[in-house]
Design brief:
CATH superfamily: Bira Bifunctional Protein, Domain 2
Strand order of the largest sheet: 1-2-6-10-9-8-7
CATH class: Alpha Beta
Shape: globular
Helix content: 25-40%
Distance between the termini: 6 Å
Strand content: 25-35%
Length: 205
């Protein structure tokens, strides 16, 4: 069984995390490090993926933005959102496509939420994880030689209206929200512990 290096941070600027991910991805490709999970939060910023740029979709003018190379459109980052970046070499038999890997990450989030008494599910409208007709988890990855960077977010207690006012990833405004807005009182610590307790079972690592 491969080991995984878990690196937890408080709040890291988005560009700093991008540099860290890129360096770790190359080290993982060269097998200089084991699979690595970065767990952190960002100051508020909206990342703009290729699909949003191609479709000419822009966030409201009062949001800071950053272009990114991972899949997807607009994604909000900020306080009250847990960010997980898996720097993982995906080499299991059931990890032979990007869709299969995303499916695994969704299953991991869904099982983690279940340990907290929250029913999460997939929705055909968009990849990620949904709770009570609202999207609370977004996923966007970038790969090089089947080693991933970027990852997924879980909104647990975001500022009122900030993620709701953003029409991200092809969805209308107010489709994405956070768990506290759905009457689920969950802390960052709760989410981290839930994810780590289900990591081995869900990702076979």
């Amino acid at each position: 069984m491969h080991t995984t290096d878990i690196q937890r941070f408080d709040v890291i600027e988005y560009n700093e995390a991008v540099e860290m991910m890129s360096k770790l991805q190359m080290q993982r490709i060269k097998e200089e490090i084991p699979d690595t999970l970065l767990i952190l939060e960002h100051p508020e910023i909206v990342t703009v993926g290729p699909r949003a740029r191609n479709d000419g979709i822009h966030p409201p003018s009062d949001y800071a933005t950053q272009a990114v190379d991972r899949g997807g459109g607009l994604t909000w980052h900020g306080p009250g959102q847990l960010v997980v970046y898996p720097i993982i070499h995906w080499d299991r038999k059931d990890e032979n496509s990007v869709a299969a890997i995303i499916h695994k990450l969704e299953a991991w989030v869904i099982e983690s939420l279940a340990t907290l008494g929250i029913d999460g599910y997939r929705d055909e409208r968009m990849q990620g994880v949904w709770v009570g007709e609202k999207k609370i988890c977004s996923i966007g990855l970038s790969f090089l030689r089947w080693v991933s960077r970027h990852g997924f977010t879980i909104n647990y207690d975001t500022p009122m209206g900030r993620v709701e006012d953003l029409a991200g990833c092809g969805l209308s405004e107010s489709t994405t929200t956070s768990l506290n807005r759905l009457n689920h009182s969950v802390s960052r610590h709760d989410l981290e512990q839930a994810l780590l307790s289900t990591y081995h079972h869900c990702l076979n690592r």
